[in-house]
Amino acid sequence: MSLKSVQELEEEHLLGTYNRYSILVDRGRGPYLVDRSHKRYLDLLSGIGVNILGHNHPRIVRLLRKQIKRPLHVSNLMYHEYAGRLAQRLCAISGLDKAFFTNSGAESVEGALKFARLFANSGRGGPRKRRVLALEGSFHGRTMGALSATHPVRYRDAFEPLVPGFDFVGFDDVEDLERRFSDDVAAVILEAVQGEGGVRPISDAFYRRARELTRAAGAALIADEIQCGLGRTGRWFGFERCLPPGSVYADRPDLIAIAKPLAGGIPMGAVLLKAAVADPIRAGIHGTTFGGGPLACRVALEVLKIVEEERLLDHARDVGSYFEQRLEELLVLPAATEVRGDGLMLALELGVAARPVVERLIAAGFIANSTRNTVLRFLPPLIIRKKQVDRFIAALRAELEKE
Ligand SMILES: Cc1ncc(COP(=O)(O)O)c(C=O)c1O
């Protein structure tokens, strides 16, 4: 099928919720995608932060071949050998105590919000804790609960009324957080680096104050690590950057929501919980049919193993700071105004609309992305090399010089 016929078919039958690039993907290898006309693209988006190992990592392909011969789904009424092992591994890297498996980011956020309200109301006395504080600019997903914690009006407007009890704090504004915080807050939810919000890292001071206030009030701190977690920033989790020196268990969030890269492109997410949050949760109180199946869990175990064995956290930090420095060189151009980010989660703020630049980069063989109209966002696979960054920077410079 040609790109044109695929486009026509989709236009007729597929709900038009997505604004696709004109690329008909055929195959991929490492940081490259190849389309039907054999054009090769350097992928600086990784399926919006999913493909941290690039495309078709040989170890994942081998493992899928093996696992595909075994039952694909067994339901959560039976055991298989990988769920417990994956939960153990996720607890080890996060320092938390329990895991609950989901199928997407929004579902991880939903679970985290429910668990947080349950936890905050499981103590005795005090006011009923209903409120959830989120940050201006936040994006937590499209389901009703996650959407209620999502700030930009354009995502929410058509779907009001949303879940009651959600309130927004100025981005990284400690004073506003203190002003809005009260005894009836059940949770504060934050992204250590806002993704859709334009790749904006929060400060250590904001994270630590949110941690102090929630701990003192018996409320939960939820870290939404769906985009910035699992190696993206060169650490397992984005919030680790905000922890005080010599940090202890109490400094970590009570709940962590993860998804995107967890199972290397197989849909999967998880909520990680501290023991105190997990304590009141009993069988039947929450669940999902597909969550934590054998295929997804086995692949996720392999993804985490590859990140560790190929030392991809160190690599992401190293190439990430190189990429950032190369982006900063572009600030001499009138069209480029600011570089932001952490590790391999980076953005170049433009003084002009970003989407046309993205279109021209695609034509030149580079897949990037724009968010918030004027932000070029880069979420390359963690395996990207400095030479590839150099090639991209040269192409980006050429495009920005045209502005
Ligand atoms: C920080 C954050 N939270 C939640 C979500 C929602 O994840 P999903 O699209 O898998 O539901 C996203 C997706 O981009 C995200 O970036």
Descriptive report:
- The chain is α/β, with parallel strands linked by helices.
- It is 36% helix and 18% strand.
- The strands form 4 sheets. The chain has a 7-stranded mixed beta sheet, with helices on both faces. A 4-stranded mixed beta sheet has the order 1-2-3-15.
- A hairpin with a 5-residue loop joins strand 8 (193-194) and strand 9 (200-201).
- Helix 3 (58-67) runs antiparallel to helix 11 and helix 12 (312-328) runs parallel beside helix 14.
- Residues 104-106, 109, 139-141, 191, 195-196, 224, 226-227, 259 line the site of pyridoxal-5'-phosphate.
Q: Could you give the topology of this structure?
A:
Layout: H1 3-13, E1 25-29, E2 32-35, E3 40-43, H2 46-49, H3 58-67, H4 83-94, E4 98-102, H5 105-120, E5 131-135, H6 144-148, H7 153-156, E6 166-169, H8 174-180, E7 185-190, E8 193-194, E9 200-201, H9 204-217, E10 220-224, E11 255-258, E12 269-273, H10 275-278, H11 294-309, H12 312-328, E13 336-342, E14 345-350, H13 355-363, E15 366-367, E16 369-371, E17 375-378, H14 386-401
Helix pairs in contact: 3-11, 4-11, 12-14
Pyridoxal-5'-phosphate (PLP) is lined by residues 104-106, 109, 139-141, 191, 195-196, 224, 226-227, 259.
